[in-house]
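Appendix C reproduces, verbatim, an entry submitted by the partner laboratory led by Prof. M.T., so that reviewers can inspect both the input and the predicted structure.
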Amino acid sequence: VMRRESGGMIFCIMIYVDDLLIFASKAETQRIRNFLTVAFTTITMSIANSISYLGMQLSWKDTKFTVDMDFYLEQVLKDWQHVAMRSGPGLRDTFKIDEASKLLAEKPRQLFHSTVARLLYLAKRVRTNTITVISFLCTRVTRATEQDQAKLERLLGYLKRTKTQKLYIGAMSNRQLMAFIDAAFALHFDSKSHTGVLIVIGGVVVYISSRKQKCIAK
């Protein structure tokens, strides 16, 4: 991220591999376009308050930033049209494993694996309220059972019911940093614990994590 102040205004350029996202006045954006055109001859650039990028629709309006992944979720749900709508992403028994539950055949397991991976991408960007369930399902992709599929279908049913939910990021009124960190001891079947992290700056969530610990705590 590159940041510059000029004439009482703040300009930002965010770089990811060979992509740039620019927050600046129209005049400054045009100046950057001219510079890049001279340097690289041919570039693809659009100037607007909304852009589609990596499955996300990013919009800026009235000092509020909106991240929309409705279309992405619709594509995920196409393979699971039979699931019923649910009121929540998971139940209290999410981390419990029934060892007697039948393993999925290879083709359903592959669909299970690809769906969990796609939902992890969604959860890390817009649907952070599903990250705990997704993090557990990630530990089951290589040996998924009918019980695991039922948990996935419950999550999909919740996403189906709330598929128009978006992420809204407003302008920060302050820069107060708050971090909420906790762990559940020996939550997983192999006695490993689970850690959750939420970091907020000025009322805006900037980081969230829910994951299985890699070693056994004593």
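The chain is about 30% helix and 30% strand. Additional entries are available on request from the coordinating office.
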